[in-house]
Amino acid sequence: MPATEELKPADEVLHPGQFVHLAVPDETADDGLRVVAGRIDELALRFLAIELDVEVKDFLSSPAAGTDIACAVTGEGCVYRFTSGFRGCSRLPVRQWFLERPETVSRIQMREFVRVPLDLPLAVRLPGDHGSMRDAADTTLIDISGGGLAFVSEEKVLLSAAIAVDIPELPGYGELRSGAKVKRCTPITTANGRKIYHIGASFDEAFVREKQERLIQTVFELQRSYLQRGLRMPHMDHTHRTSTTQP
Fold first, then answer.
1. Running DSSP on this structure, what letter comes out for residue 241?
2. 141 falls in which pLDDT band (50, 70, 90)?
3. Buried b vs exposed e over 153-180: b needs ≥16 C-beta within 10 Å?
């Protein structure tokens, strides 16, 4: 088991009203999975009742009984994952799926969360002289997760440098402002030969403590919206040094 993962009793983690992210096997999907969102409505002795936030047609496209569904719920600085067998569904107009109640869940640290690609305006304050920060400069967001983000920079930024980021309008969240620490600085050569940098940064502890769970839920919703529009989630490789994308 990876060092970032540990088992926890499900009774200590799961509770009614909790947001749930479900990955359902679907041969018609590009990556073989259909993403469904909902909330735990009831925890019975042997099953979970999940209230789904889906259209009727998606609710009716329920998996076969016994199908294993990968589930995830958010925690403080982590995500809890478990696999649960599908048992059945409610009658309309109620939109509930019934899943087997797990005995344990896996606690996985934040860096394991999915990153969602987003092309949005972002203002960043980079380090200045003598421990100060420069004035905010406009740039472009590349992707975001519950633990951090990546953006375009015209210049190299030192690892572990303290910066400040401000996304004026993150869909489903609003304005996101946080301090951050640089974890990655990758040189990228664009199609026209211009050199830029992809900067990866993690949010500071104050943001993680106060606002991370809300952001995690927003990222899950963005991922679900992305997949429902028939778009394949791209793999964002920030270690690669070339790009065919124009700046």
1. -
2. very high
3. beeebeeebebbbebeebeebeebebbb
